[in-house]
Write a structure and sequence with these properties.
single chain, alpha/beta, Rossmann fold, six-stranded mixed beta sheet, four-stranded antiparallel beta sheet
Length: 229
């Protein structure tokens, strides 16, 4: 199967000279359509840096990232912003909701920023799947952590992205809420045929993926396919 996402020689260096930190070191990776990959490793191993580079949130020191055949770092900043908004969905540990907007307005934000028409049937399907029907008029501060993460997932899904990137999506939740969010990510991947790439420090969560990539000191130390997932 052809790679939907491909990283070649991907490196990220912060600082210079004695202060140089090599957060990521010449990583070569690919991700196929519809796959679920967990990225694991100790704190500081480069997990979030890799995820941000794969999604175009940061700029590599060297190397390339191709998404659907396009090298995103050859795009102008404005072009990459539009591409990222349309083709990549992000779910963060701390939700990153706009506190002055309702849940409904937060979900639609990427569509509004792009001046695109809302697919009402698709929106209703997302809201139903995530159980948000009775929370749409609430502001972020009026929602539990689990509910806020559900809104964040809905916002990530609303543009029908090819790729869903999740950075410790359960890290700020209790066990029950975390398990529910993880189940919803699994469900959205299956229902909408997305490629899910998730950073986690939780080995039990990582075990639910089709593939586990282990990072250490910015380098890939393990890349294991899990059969039967």
């Amino acid at each position: 199967m052809a790679a939907l996402v491909q990283a070649k020689g991907l490196s990220k260096i912060y600082g210079k000279g004695d202060n140089e930190v090599r957060a990521l070191n010449e990583c070569n990776l690919y991700f196929t359509e519809g796959s679920f990959t967990s990225i694991v490793g100790r704190s500081g191993s480069g997990k979030s840096t890799l995820l941000h580079l794969l999604g175009g949130l940061d700029t590599p020191t060297q190397g390339s990232v191709e998404i659907e055949g396009r090298d995103i770092y050859r795009l102008l900043d404005s072009e990459r912003t539009v591409f990222r908004r349309r083709r990549v969905g992000f779910v963060f540990q701390f939700y990153n909701l706009m506190p002055e907007l309702t849940a409904y307005q937060n979900i639609l934000l990427p569509i509004r920023l792009d001046n695109r028409r809302v697919d009402k049937d698709y929106l209703d399907e997302i809201i139903s799947m995530l159980g948000l029907g009775e929370r749409l008029s609430h502001y972020a501060g009026e929602l539990s952590g689990g509910q806020q993460q559900r809104v964040a997932i809905a916002r990530a899904l609303i543009t029908k992205p090819a790729i869903l990137l999740a950075d410790e999506p359960t890290g700020n939740l209790d066990g029950k809420s975390g398990a529910e969010v993880l189940e919803l990510l699994h469900l959205s991947k299956k229902r909408f045929h997305q490629t899910l790439i998730m950073v986690t420090h939780d080995e039990q969560i990582a075990e639910g993926a089709d593939r586990i990539i282990t990072l250490e000191d910015g380098c890939i130390r393990g890349d294991t396919e899990r059969r039967g997932q």
